[in-house]
What we know:
Helix content: 55-70%
Strand content: under 5%
Distance between the termini: 40 Å
Number of strands: 0
Amino acid sequence: MPTVRDFRNYGFDHKRIDRCGRFVGRRMYWKLYAIENLIRVFMHSALSTQIAPNWWDLAVDPKIRKKAQRVRQNYARAPRHSLPGKHDIYCVFLPDLNNIIRANSNLLLPLVPDIDAWIIKIEEVRLPRNLVGHMNFPSQIDRQKIDEVYRDVPYLIERLRVRGMRVDVP
């Protein structure tokens, strides 16, 4: 398989752009999708058990809740588009998810003893996620970080299962 290189480093060729797009989608985008959504499922499952089923209103900073409401309102104004998930956790982004984990780390620590390391891991994948999400070509180091976090993130779900907790999609 030929090596795919960032199209911006060469003269214009629409085929090169196509190859880059397919490479980024096939190699990274789906992993970032899985990472973010596994983190959402982990947080919802853990905080629903540790706090209450309505944990969002009790455990999330008002600024993040308002942000989620603004996103939901934007979708409501354009009903022809697909909606994010039913829960407001689908209306916030990776930095917000990490801030929720950080703010509730005291409740997550008994479930995931290395929760601080997870906060760092999630932060380390934030910039590569933004690159891919905004259709840019990530470096080899960024691709390796995405691969590492993707490989490790199922651990969070496993920690809940080991504790006998229900893993539930919000």
